Amino acid sequence: MTVRWGILGAARFAEKHMAPAIHAAKGASLDALATSSPDKAERFRAFCPGLRVHDSYEGLLDDPEIDVVYIPLPNTLHVGWSLKALAAGKHVLCEKPIAMQAPEIDALIAARDQSGLLAAEAYMIVHHPQWQRTRALIADGAIGQVVHVEGLFGFDISADPGNIRNRPETGGGAIPDIGVYTYGSTRFATGAEPEDITQAALVFDRGVDVMAQVSAKFPGFTAHWVNSTRMFPAQTMTFVGSEGLIRLTAPFNAGVFGEARVEVHQPGLAIREERFPGVNQYVLQVEAFCRSVDGGEPYAWPLEEARATQRMIDRIYTKAQGGVSASSIRMMC
User: What pLDDT is attached to residue 329?
Assistant: First the structure.
């Protein structure tokens, strides 16, 4: 069975990454796009000539020949349009963060369960073999007991004030955009949940957090992450154990930032390296979603996982402002 996809909005990220991935994925067909811009539609038709174009989001949701709606809209629109898509009888893959606060995801879970449809956050890294391998290595005791996790993900968009990641009204900020990766990947790889957020130092610019230094305590180990949209591009994840260390060199934008490599450092300065060239994690994500829709295969990142990471984010904002909620922080800034 071919799963028929439509995209809600002609976002640049969708044009560059997800639309080509849907078009290339086995078991998927990119059939429709919702945009009122003919110029943007033509950029999608350049690699998908038969694409149907609806001039409204509602038009795509009403299209009876679409099975799945992919939503790359600004963060503040994710929950509302995901609920509308589920109500229209469509499966939903929505960009991260799927919500601005964890309780909003409860409504999505309820709508998913009531409809019997699949709804998920587009957290593509869990489909990449480097992360599946890292999770297996940790579970198998390749580095002994995890003692500490260190994560870094940043880049610089200071010269682009109109970027939705720089705008509070669209749910911008370093934490919503890239903190989800450092926090969520720690949870995914270790299978552990944080007991406490011990430090959260945030720097704000024009109403959004642009630098976040966060520390947390997990059962048996500590973690520290730095995320920024005002720094030289950098990304790495390191899992330090009692008997070794695992380092991922391109953990989040594999194939774009650099080749995906998992380094296993062991006693005696021994380093075992595993490389994953030519892997497109967006294609793998689409194919996994299609298999779940078609055959009921469990999806690797259900809404409950997205909610758990968002709960971390909510706690981080609260910690940073001494008990003030995330929504209040945005109003103050």
Answer: 47
Report pLDDT for 325.
44
pLDDT of residue 101: 97
Question: What is d(CA 263, CA 245) in angstroms, rounded to the nearest whole number?
Answer: 8
**260-266/245-248 β-pairing:** antiparallel
Total residues found in the chain within this entry:
333
Residue numbers of the chain with a pLDDT score lower than 70: 323-333
Same domain? For 83 and 169 the reply is no
Number of domains in the chain: 2
The pLDDT > 90 percentage for the chain reads 93
Query: Is 225 found in the same domain as 206?
Result: yes
Q: b/e map of 263-302 (b: 16 or more CB within 10 Å)?
A: ebbeeeeeeeeeebeebbbbbbbbbbbbbbbeeeeebbbb
- For 131-179, what is each residue's pLDDT tens digit? 999 999 999 999 999 999 999 999 999 999 999 999 999 999 999 999 9
Whether 284 maps to a domain, the answer reads: no
With beta carbons less than 8 A apart as the criterion, state whether 126 and 136 touch: no
The reply to whether 149 and 113 lie within a common domain is no
pLDDT at 323: 52
Q: Single out the residue of 99, 244, 271, 73 nearest to residue 176, CA to CA.
A: 99
Q: Which of 83, 89, 50 is nearest to 68 (CA)?
A: 89
Count H helices, E strands: the chain? 12, 14
Task: For residue 296, tell me if it sits in a domain.
Answer: no
147/196 Cα distance (integer angstroms): 16
Same domain for 118 and 7: yes
- Domain final residue pick, 73, 103, 122: 122
The phi and psi torsions of 189 (rounded to 5 degrees) equal: -70, -35
User: According to the model, what pLDDT value does residue 295 have?
Assistant: 83
Question: Rounded to two decimals, what is the model's pTM?
Answer: 0.94
The CATH code of the domain that includes 58 is 3.40.50.720
Kindly state whether residue 320 falls inside one of the protein's structural domains: yes
Residues 6+ apart with CB under 8 A from 169: 76
